[in-house]
Each structure stands twice: as C-alpha cells, then as structure tokens.
Design a protein that fits this description.
single chain, about 140 residues, mainly beta, four-stranded antiparallel β-sheet, 8 strands, globular
Length: about 140
C-alpha cells in the first residue's frame, strides 16, 4: 500500500454533496465559496495523478488546484492511523531552505506536535536545489 497526503480545491461548495472516499478526509468551505478537501491514508493507486483523478471522479466537480504527495513519488511519513478520523481546522506549513530536506525536517518536527498528520516532500524549490517539505496539521 502507498501512503499519501494532500489537498484539492473544488469550484463552489461541495459540502452538501453525498460521496464516499475510501480514506480519511476533512472538507471545508472557503470564504470565496469554493471548497477544500484535505485527505490522507493508504491506497493501491500508484501515482498522485491517479489519486487526483479518482477523487475528482468521485466528487464530480471542477478542480481549481491540487497538492498531493504519494509514497511512490515522494518521501512521506503519516503520523495518524488510516482509519482515524480527524476533526478540526487544517493548516499546512512549508519549509524551503538550502539546508533543509525531508530527513532534517523529520528530525526537527516529528515529535513536536500531536496535531501533525503528515510530513511530506513536495515540488522542487524555485530558489534552492532541493524539494519543499510540507507539514500537514489538523488542530
């Protein structure tokens, strides 16, 4: 199984739609009327693109943006059980610096908060020659 964590922003409010995803997720409406889904867990899908297409087809709405990390493409560590449901507010922190990488962020943050859901690699930094590390938090 492949671990993943990510967020997708959908056009308009989807909070009233009825759909089932086979993993844990949080949904919230933005001030502009669009909706975010933060999701995490394990899947047999092998790419972030496959996972994105699956979620979009299940929800059935147009997507504005997405940010997904999956263990077949990125380093990722989940700090919560796949079947554990979260409640609260989602926040993402990004670390981008020349001296930082996945291992250094794990070393510095893995035990710093019980609210951390995942630490994951993301896109390449435009300023440095490494990858941006994202920390998904629900508090």
């Amino acid at each position: 199984m492949n671990q993943f964590s990510g967020i997708i922003t959908f056009v308009w409010d989807i909070t009233g739609l009825h759909f089932e995803l086979p993993f844990s997720y949080l949904i919230w409406e933005q001030d502009d009327g669009n909706t975010n889904i933060f999701f995490y867990g394990e899947t047999e899908l092998i790419s972030s693109e496959e996972l994105k297409k699956f979620i979009i087809s299940t929800v059935g709405r147009e997507v504005i943006a997405s940010d997904i990390s999956i263990s077949t493409e990125d380093k990722i560590e989940l700090f919560i059980e796949d079947d554990e449901e979260l409640e609260g507010e989602y926040m993402r922190t990004m670390i981008e610096w020349a001296g930082e990488d996945f291992e250094s962020v794990m070393e510095n943050f893995w035990n710093s908060s019980p609210n951390i859901v995942a630490i994951r690699e993301a896109e390449k930094s435009k300023f440095f020659w490494n990858r941006i590390i994202k920390i998904d938090i629900v508090y």
